[in-house]
Amino acid sequence: EKLVKGQHYSYSDMTGIVARSMTTRIGTWTVVFDSGAGDTKWGTIALNTSTPEETIAKVRARSSTDQKKWSAWEDLGKEAEIKTTPDGRYLQIETTMQLLSGETSPILKDMSVSVK
């Protein structure tokens, strides 16, 4: 495909080794939950992940009453009670999946959030 006023170059091989070595080994996904009610007391976040050896799955959360001003991030584990995040209608959750070495990437299958 010719790009107008641009140069286009791509290299690949049939084994896929070039593509695999050039791709990122870390990814982040962020979602905002809306409880529909002000001052929601958030409970726990549970991640259902596949984390082979040499991979990491991290999660953190923060809250807001209006989606304009957010609290500080709270670092959490795979199944963690939300302790320091203030009450609020909205809960923003950020998950980071990282492949440290090897070939098999971590996978986030699903996530659940509870309220108190």
CATH class: Mainly Beta
Spans with pLDDT under 50 lasting ≥5 residues? none
Report strand order across the widest sheet: 1-6-3-4
CATH topology: Jelly Rolls
Task: Supply the CATH architecture.
Answer: Sandwich
Total of domains: 1
Q: Give me the CATH superfamily.
A: PAW domain
- Global mean pLDDT: 85
Gyration radius (Cα, Å) is 19 Å
| Alpha-carbon distance between the two ends | 55 Å
- Strand fraction equals over 45%
3D structure, described in words:
By secondary structure, this protein is mainly beta. It has one domain (25-115): Jelly Rolls (Sandwich), CATH 2.60.120. It is built from one helix and seven strands, in the order H-E-E-E-E-E-E-E. The protein has one helix at residues 17-22; strands at 26-34, 42-50, 55-64, 74-76, 79-81, 90-99, 107-115. A four-stranded antiparallel β-sheet has the order 1-6-3-4, with no helix packed on it.
List keywords for this structure.
elongated; three-stranded antiparallel sheet; mainly beta; 116 residues; four-stranded antiparallel sheet; 7 strands; Jelly Rolls; single chain
Summarize the structure.
5% of the residues lie in helices and 46% in strands.
What is the topological layout?
Blueprint: H1 17-22, E1 26-34, E2 42-50, E3 55-64, E4 74-76, E5 79-81, E6 90-99, E7 107-115
Antiparallel strand pairs: 1-6, 2-5, 2-7, 3-4, 3-6
